[in-house]
Amino acid sequence: MTARPRIAIAGFQHETNTFAPFGASYDDFVRADGWPEMTTGAAILEVFPPLAIPIGGFINAARSTYDFVPLIWCAAEPCSFVADDAFERVATVICDGIAAAGGLDAIYLDLHGAMVVQSFEDGEGELLRRIREVTGPDMPIIVSLDMHANVTEAMVALSDGIALYRTYPHIDMIETGQRAFALLQQRLAHGKPLAKALRKAPFLVPLAAQGTDFEPCKSLYAGLPAGAKGAVANIDFATGFPPADIRECGPALVAYGTDETAVAAAADQHFARLLAAENRFELPMLAASEAVGRAARDGRKGAPIVLADIQDNPGAGGTSDTIGLLKAMVDGGLRDSVLGLLWDPETAKAAHDAGIGAEIDVRLGGRYGYDPAPYAARVRVEALSDGAFTCHGPILGGVAVDLGPMARLRILDEKSDVHVAVASIRYQCLDQDLLRAVGIEPKEQSVVALKSTIHFRADFAPIAREIIMVESPGANFSRNEQVTYKNLRPGVRKTPTGLAAA
After folding, report:
1. Mind listing the pLDDT tens digit for each residue in 301-324?
2. Cα angle: 174, vertex 80, 470; to 5 degrees
3. What residues does each domain of the chain span?
4. What count of other Cβ atoms lies within 10 Å of the Cβ of residue 436?
5. pLDDT per residue over 172-184, tens digit each?
6. Considering the entire predicted model, what is its pTM?
7. How many helices (H) and strands (E) does the chain have?
8. pLDDT band, residue 300 (cuts 50/70/90)
9. What is the DSSP string of 218-287?
């Protein structure tokens, strides 16, 4: 009997906003939040196949014909620099596991592509460098990356193939894992490294302009080949993660195949499409007061207006505790309205201590300098939750989240009726079940304000009468041109010409 090929698999995920006020420790990678806790060994083969995560898609695609050496999978919510200690400990598990695995035919890595470590601008590139020290240059290594990856020369040089998400909201993570497996099969069938091409764009694109439900990304991604086409095995775009002050920040294109000339030509063709789209990027934001005014006029139960607090998105390093939009909602007299999720463990604890029905004075959010002070308010505790439940939306379908003690608070104000969903663990509000956990049914509201940039659209757009992007302070800035970059390579425009003209 012929032995089945053996693949070492691992995941190490972090999206690093170098402008955010706090970073990621080892403990942040250990604990569960909106994603599973740090998982090692054989448990990986049980935890991830049911989940909409790339490594799950890869395992399901490969398990009938390949044997796995599962090492570790971990992730931490986006924030600033990953601590050296965290990187060293996880990288050591991966590298030591590969060294101890014996005969391997390939390695698959479920990475993000925008990790910045205290001592390394390119976390993924450094991890790949260390793995190559163990394996040498010939071991096939295939990587899946987030669409927001800042793809670097090292990532491309040190791997054999990269597959990237093609949707934002990210609803194709399973498919990306499957495409990574298809790329691995093509690499193994070829018997030697594939030809590869990397093209880097000369401009940055704010996250809020990167959605694939609207132009120009909708057409850019729709125009990518679905699978191998002749001598070209795969072509993918990364839109980049602009709140990362590193040299190689920004959009990129990667292409792979069996013929160098064909791969280069395909890369040039699709890269030209990206460059031609530069003046089509748009970022229609309204000030908080203006957005609230429109919502007050047009929102109604059954078809709520969704206000996206895009610059305080914890999924991009935001603190999820800014109170600019919340104050505008109360001051604007909104009724039948909710904001979530506000990260405030102190207030969540106070609510649990007081109990349902209690009226208490609180200081909501505003603790990281994006607001003059926390929001002092008297609130009624309407509902409580332990924060442990399962989400069912398009992105988190089947994922058991644990956000610690949660509370639904009603701001006691004669002119308005605004509720706040408070959580003890910082997490992006991208699934309706995150609000239902504290008894809020989103479609029954007139206005739903969400601390998210794009991901919320997957679950909330179907119930929304209108979506309004709100310009309120936060760490996930959308006006790149107003930010000082110290490490970005010379000649890169901080915003597309289309946005600059606007």
Report:
1. 889 999 999 999 999 999 999 999
2. 75
3. 6-280, 285-477
4. 16
5. 999 999 999 999 9
6. 0.96
7. 15, 20
8. confident
9. HHHHHTS-SS-BTTEEEEEEE---SS--STT-S-EEEEEES-HHHHHHHHHHHHHHHHHTGGG----EEE
